[in-house]
Design a protein that fits this description.
Length: 115
């Protein structure tokens, strides 16, 4: 599960969004409760870059709800290292979703264009 998340995140950073979505969806399938905040945020960024803003916003909302649940849980203190990492990644995702999808070179074999 963690390996699929890490691979998916690396593929996002490499601008290989279709492959990232596949790996991240596979990670979600192995996790309970629809995946981790981290996975949801990388899915939001991937879908945005693929031009599917509805899915991107849906994953951002799911991540927000999970972050709030973690923060509000009085019985189990949050893992602050993970919480701060997720908050920083959430801020990155929010900023990305405000911008148009990145331009991709027309002849780039690594990054298929969603034409």
């Amino acid at each position: 599960m963690a390996a699929l998340e890490i691979l998916g995140a690396a593929l996002v950073r490499a601008h290989r969004y279709p492959e990232a979505v596949k790996q991240l969806n596979d990670a979600v399938a192995q996790q309970k409760a629809g995946g981790t905040v981290w996975t949801q945020l990388f899915l939001a960024m991937s879908h945005h870059q693929l031009g599917d803003d509805a899915k991107a916003k849906d994953f951002l909302k799911k991540a927000d709800a999970q972050l709030k649940q973690i923060q509000d849980n009085k019985d189990t203190p949050p893992n602050w290292q993970e919480f701060l990492r997720d908050k920083a990644l959430r801020q990155e995702a929010e900023e990305l979703l405000k911008s148009p999808p990145a331009e991709r070179p027309k002849n780039c074999a690594l990054v298929p264009r969603p034409d």
